[in-house]
Design goal:
Elements: H1 6-12, H2 19-28, E1 30-34, E2 39-41, E3 49-55, E4 58-63, E5 69-75, H3 82-90, E6 96-100, E7 104-110, H4 111-120, H5 122-148, H6 151-166, E8 170-172, H7 175-182, H8 186-198, E9 202-205, E10 208-211, H9 215-218
Antiparallel strand pairs: 1-7, 2-6, 3-7, 4-5, 4-6, 8-10, 9-10
Helix pairs in contact: 7-8
Length: 219
Amino acid sequence: MSELQTEELKKLLPSLSDPGILEELQEESHVKHFEEGDLLMERGQFIRFVPIVISGAIRILRVDEEGKEVFLYYLNPGDSCALSLTCCSAHKPSEIKAVADEPTDVIMLPVHLHEEWTSRYKSWKDYVSLTYQRRFQEVLGVIDAVAFKKMDERLLNYLLAKFKQHRATEIHITHQQIATELGTSREVVSRLLKQLEKRKIIELGRNTIYVRDDFDEIV
């Protein structure tokens, strides 16, 4: 894997300090680039590679048999996907959809390395365990939101996650995209966004939502 040198890997994955892991990563993995909106994984596909994000961000969504989607969490630099790890360990097809949220570079780790490292390297087992823990907490947050929060609260939390992810006051997204990822209708999203605009929390543009610089403080 000539795209990343050992020192870069150490900075990206400080918990994976074992020289054996770093050497195998360089020799047997490869880096792949994805543009914004590119699909990394679809529901029903078998996982051949475990993704580790180098730069950019990946949006993970749960998809049901009818094609309805719910946003679960983001993968940021240094992150891997717990659901991908689970599926490849069980040799089952993916139950999630992964989409590049911006230009993104990803280490494509062959599944057999994950399986081998689990028994050979404690640092890898610890990294996987921490990944499970973080993603589990995020999925619990989604369940809590669906079960206990009203749609206006869920919409605000969704916009807040977007704001924190990109640290930008312009969120480029359509009302339909938001509706799809929140599991509701475009009409509901549009109505709630207009209410937020009346409260001067956001400003609506064409396929763009403008939020205040202190958005994370007022929400």
